[in-house]
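Recall the central idea of this unit: under ordinary conditions, the amino acid sequence of a chain determines the structure it adopts. In this exercise we apply that idea directly, starting from the sequence alone.
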Amino acid sequence: MIDPEQLRILRHALGIGDCGTKPPYRNHFVTGVDSSDHPHCMALVQRGLMSRRTGNALSGGDDVFSVTADGRLAAGGTWVKQPRSKQRYADWLREDGVESFGEWLRRRRYKDWESDRA
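Accordingly, the structure predicted from this sequence is:
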């Protein structure tokens, strides 16, 4: 479970909006040690949802946090979509069959080919 404030930070860092419906257009969140957001960002780093770079002149000395791949998934949002290959594998895992993944793929391709011919 993710804290609502941490979810807000992840979504803000990606620029996807509070509901997560906008496509991401950035991947950074800048905050200083005295900010109320900094402890939340450090907790996200510990959970592997963000990475941290120490501040520099460009960030005004504040730390720069970036969202990791796991953080993108945790941020949710309607823009998150699994690659087709991972979706197929997840579909195969949900089925209660005895065939191998390769057999399952071949059977699906044959069904798709048959439906295209009809």
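The chain has two domains: 4-74, 84-117.
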